[in-house]
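Researcher: Predict the fold of DNA invertase Pin-like site-specific DNA recombinase.
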Amino acid sequence: MGTKILLKWCKLLKYDFFRIYTQHLVLFSPPASHDNKDPDRKSELPQFRKNIYTKVMIDFILELISTEQKTTRQVIDEYKIPKTTLYKWISKYKINKI
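Model: Structure tokens for DNA invertase Pin-like site-specific DNA recombinase follow.
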């Protein structure tokens, strides 16, 4: 399916089908090689951090904790989120329930 047709379907259904593809690329792309040949040389390409957690996911997980549907330990075990990441979210978004 061409991207023009897919874009029309995205607009029609109000759903971002491109997000599925881009998240797949982020999750399964090979690790970047770091060439130390010339450290002063800057790449012309933009540098992006790989963040697999969307704002919607973070809000959902923090809502589970704040409404006491799940404890932090349950979230860590069930969703395989690192403990430090979860506690950074809690402190960044000021969630009082721990």
